[in-house]
Design goal:
about 0% strand; single chain; mainly alpha
């Protein structure tokens, strides 16, 4: 059951997936274990901050668009 590939640090896409899943509260136990065992906290912190900033800007843009289309 122990796969040698499990000992590698998570890739960028795996970390991004983990950050997005954690943001929405749907992170799996297997991925969480992998992240805490092989991931570096600084990488997750930076990705989390970047994700939060992009998510906030997207929401801001959507609100501005809706208000513009509503004529407000």
């Amino acid at each position: 059951m122990d796969d040698p590939a499990d000992n590698k640090p998570p890739t960028f896409w795996q970390m991004l997936h983990s950050v997005m899943a954690a943001a929405f509260g749907v992170q799996s136990g297997k991925n969480r274990t992998r992240d805490f065992t092989h991931g570096k906290p600084a990488h997750f912190l930076l990705l989390g901050l970047l994700f939060t900033a992009v998510f906030s800007l997207i929401l801001f843009g959507i609100v501005k668009l809706v208000l513009h289309l509503a004529g407000v």
